[in-house]
Amino acid sequence: MLNLAGLVDLDASMAFGVMLGSAGSIRVLAAESVLNDASLERVARHLKEGPPAADEMLLVEARHLVEADFPAAPERSVLMAAIGVELRTKRLLRSLARTSDQASALDLLLGHPRDWSMSVHGLFLKALPVFVGAGAAEGLGQGHIDLSKRVQKLFASRNLIAHTGAAVTGAEAVLHVQT
Question: pTM of whole model > 0.90?
């Protein structure tokens, strides 16, 4: 599929000659990712449940930027992915708080960053297993540790981009966005 969109009326079998985007990249899509009546119904049902969470929107946008042919896309995609991962980690922790004491402690930690500071990597690596619970935390195993390392690398790149204007390659951006 070319990174190009045209305005077409399928019912009338008529093209309007309007093209959007550049033909600078080619991407092959899996059949299940192509919109059809059933997938549009799923999207409509999902949207009726309310707007997507900010983390979902940022992570989808980061994926789009990695796949698109924009000059500043690698850095922008890493920045968006980092914000998305931070928001998703915090949303997950809030959903795992089982007691009012846990919810209050988490609110203290997340709501007062000047008093209680913990990096997103720290939240992911250390706080997440606490909120999952002792038995479930053991089940997180090596996969959790490996993903924690990827989160740490994502935020190291994010900090370099945000604080020094550093550049990342497209391949690095893809790895970070897949985190």
Answer: no
